Amino acid sequence: MKALRILSFVYKSLVICLIALGLIIIGGTVYGVFFRTTTKLLNIPEEHAYTPEPQESGQGQTFTGIGRLRLSTAEPQPGMVILFVTFIYYPEDKAFSEELALRIRDFRGIITDYIGSFSSAELLKQDEESIKAELLRRFNAILRLGQIETLYFSDFTVVG
After folding, report:
1. What are the φ and ψ backbone dihedral angles of 48, each rounded to 5 degrees?
2. What is the topology classification, in CATH, of domain 45-159?
3. Measured between alpha carbons, how far is 16 from 24 in angstroms, rounded to an integer?
4. Quick check: 95 and 140 in contact, CB under 8 A?
5. What gap in Å lies between CA 88 and CA 50, rounded to an integer?
6. Do residues 62 and 51 make contact, with C-beta atoms less than 8 angstroms apart?
7. What's the pTM value of the predicted model, to 2 decimals?
8. What pLDDT, in 10s, does the model give residues 36-66?
9. For 86-140, how does the pLDDT look when each residue is reduced to its tens digit (9 = 90+)?
10. Which of 111, 119, 132, 137 has the fewest beta carbons closer than 10 A?
11. Which residues pair with 81 in a beta bridge?
């Protein structure tokens, strides 16, 4: 009899825990769907998220989601390129803002492929504006809901 009571207590405890976990999961899902921002839903780190200060409507903000990249050059003893690419976007265009956030990995791949195709010496001879123009052309080729107007390099260092 005593063993039966213990099993009954354990069973009831497990059912209560299961119900509590179910409520937590449902509550978290509802919170995530209705109260979280786009950058959090897309799992963009805070330091790469859009500028958080409120801006006047129609005013652009700096997109820094690509982050600082450390890239190898194309030579037997590869050098390194440190590059931080930014551009202006308009957050009131929600669809384009979301496309930009979803394309961060593609942007990084484009930069890695393009910069990685040069040796350190070739990069030092290249005009920074021509590199920006080619990267801009490649970025805009994959975008469907808008276009980037100008790229900026906050950091462009060739080491090696």
Report:
1. -110, 0
2. Tetrahydropterin Synthase; Chain A (3.30.479)
3. 12
4. no
5. 10
6. yes
7. 0.63
8. 654 444 555 544 444 444 445 567 899 999 9
9. 999 999 999 999 999 999 999 999 999 999 999 999 999 999 999 999 999 999 9
10. 137
11. 71, 158
Q: Which residues contact 71 (CB under 8 A, 6 or more apart)?
A: 80, 81, 82, 83, 111, 112, 115, 116
- Residue 83: CB partners within 8 Å, gap ≥ 6? 68, 69, 71, 111, 115, 153, 155, 156, 157
Residue 120 and residue 158 in contact, taking contact as beta carbons nearer than 8 Å:
yes
**Amino acid present at 79:** G
Q: Which residue has the tokens 């009899």?
A: 1
Domain ranges (residues) in the chain: 2-36, 45-159
Structure tokens at 87: 């551009």
